[in-house]
């Protein structure tokens, strides 16, 4: 299973490759030809294992479609979010369409893990491979989002290690993938599964890990003392300008004095955080809120402070999202009837949504930058319902033609993310110009 499968995936509804096996598992009917085709059999690579024809060996197309739909939503948010605030990321509390992208990816990774690690013959080897895949993702994310590339309007590249951004989207996915993979490899029993209760019992240790992480996150978020702090940004004539932020509180979930930001400043260093915080579009920090705009005359001191939306403490709840997706993958493995699968998906999905709105009502607001508990629940519940809808449409009723584009995008999700979302393709195109760097194709079409 290659690194790219963390997002792209190699998910099958029932037959999944063993992570410890380097052979190719090729169903006769879905591999190189129909059963009995001698030419096809001769063309099989050395070491290939023939699997008997089985309807269970078909790829879980709905997961590819879901992944592709998430990629399309990500591109829409990146390109059109600035024009339509309803789909752009929420400045702080509350959720918009854009705030579902990251949790959807994490949920999908969890579902794929449940299928890929259905059978593990050597736990140590599988763990070692999972660590290597997570490291590859983190290194790739560091190159793409650490500041090495300077954007589509700047042909220079390179990053000062003193200011490199350590965290990012792929790093968060890599961390969540690793923890969920370790749970799937080591924390499951051998109990037989014939009902929803027995499914919970078989994976009770994974559920305990998710509960422990949630409690750990909640204790730190509401229990840590956040002292006063300060930061510096370049001012006029390149001179550094210092701002002081007064806190001295516990349990604050506002932009300035939350424990999520404090932990990142203490451990990662404020110079290594994302320099364009989402809260710069709040009413306190922008006269054009919820869009970017000039600072109001009475703007608070924290408006321009760095803040990483993929920080350390918030990534704890991202792991929980991945673990929830993992449980949805278990349903596919242990239940073969469509009705059983749908039933065991709908119950937790609606339960998570109900819990999310209850928490929000009682003051635990949905918040993406903090990755709050209510945000975790609402996005995971929405992911579950959307996955059920796509599954019914594609895998139950077989409507693949209308979703072919999404399926293709889902099978090439990481490549699309690198080329489009990380601006690698635009930067490459911009590198070819006529006499002057401004005379390039991107400038001609208004990008």
Automatic annotation (TrEMBL):
Species, as recorded: Dioscorea zingiberensis
A Pfam family recorded for this sequence: HGSNAT_cat
Membrane-crossing residue ranges in chain numbering: 65-88, 100-118, 130-149, 169-187, 207-225, 312-333, 345-364, 370-394, 414-434
Keyword Transport: no
Residue intervals of the Heparan-alpha-glucosaminide N-acetyltransferase catalytic domain: 59-182
Keyword annotations: Membrane, Transmembrane, Transmembrane helix
Protein name: Heparan-alpha-glucosaminide N-acetyltransferase catalytic domain-containing protein
Record carries keyword Transmembrane: yes
Source taxonomy: Eukaryota, Viridiplantae, Streptophyta, Embryophyta, Tracheophyta
Residues forming coiled coils: none
């Amino acid at each position: 299973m290659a690194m790219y499968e963390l997002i792209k995936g190699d998910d099958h509804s029932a037959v999944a490759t063993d992570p410890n096996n380097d052979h190719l598992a090729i169903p006769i009917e879905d591999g190189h030809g129909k059963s009995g085709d001698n030419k096809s059999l001769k063309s099989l690579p050395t070491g290939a294992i023939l699997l008997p024809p089985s309807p269970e060996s078909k790829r879980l197309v709905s997961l590819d479609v879901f992944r592709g739909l998430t990629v399309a939503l990500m591109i829409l948010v990146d390109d059109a979010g600035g024009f339509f605030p309803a789909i752009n990321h929420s400045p702080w509390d509350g959720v918009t369409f854009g705030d579902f992208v990251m949790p959807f990816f994490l949920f999908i990774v969890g579902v794929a893990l449940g299928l890929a690690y259905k059978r593990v013959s050597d736990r140590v080897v599988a763990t070692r491979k999972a660590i290597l895949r997570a490291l590859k993702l983190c290194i790739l994310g560091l190159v793409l989002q650490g500041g090495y590339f300077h954007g589509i309007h700047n042909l220079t590249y390179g990053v000062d290690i003193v200011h490199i951004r350590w965290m990012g989207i792929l790093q968060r996915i890599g961390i969540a993938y690793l923890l969920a993979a370790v749970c799937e490899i080591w924390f499951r029993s051998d109990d037989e599964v014939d009902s929803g209760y027995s499914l919970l019992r078989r994976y009770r240790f994974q559920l305990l890990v998710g509960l422990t992480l949630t409690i750990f996150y909640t204790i730190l978020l509401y229990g840590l003392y956040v002292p006063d702090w300060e930061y510096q940004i370049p001012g006029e004539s390149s001179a550094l300008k210092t701002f002081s932020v007064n806190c001295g509180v516990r349990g604050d979930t506002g932009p300035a004095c939350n424990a999520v930001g404090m932990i990142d400043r203490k451990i990662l260093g404020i110079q290594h955080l994302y320099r364009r915080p989402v809260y710069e579009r709040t009413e306190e920090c922008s006269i054009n809120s919820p869009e970017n705009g000039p600072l109001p005359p009475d703007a608070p001191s924290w408006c321009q402070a760095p803040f990483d939306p993929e920080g350390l403490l918030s990534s704890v709840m991202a792991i929980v999202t991945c673990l929830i997706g993992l449980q949805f993958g278990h349903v596919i493995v242990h239940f073969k009837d469509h009705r059983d699968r749908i039933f065991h998906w709908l119950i937790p999905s609606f339960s998570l949504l109900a819990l999310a709105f209850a928490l929000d009502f009682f003051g635990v607001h949905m918040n993406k930058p903090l990755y709050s508990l209510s945000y975790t629940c609402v996005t995971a519940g929405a992911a579950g319902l959307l996955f059920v809808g796509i599954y019914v449409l594609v895998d139950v009723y077989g409507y693949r033609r209308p979703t072919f584009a999404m399926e293709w995008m889902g099978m090439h999700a990481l490549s699309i993310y690198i080329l489009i979302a990380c601006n690698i393709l635009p930067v490459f195109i911009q590198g070819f110009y006529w006499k002057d760097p401004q005379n390039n194709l991107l400038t001609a079409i208004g990008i």
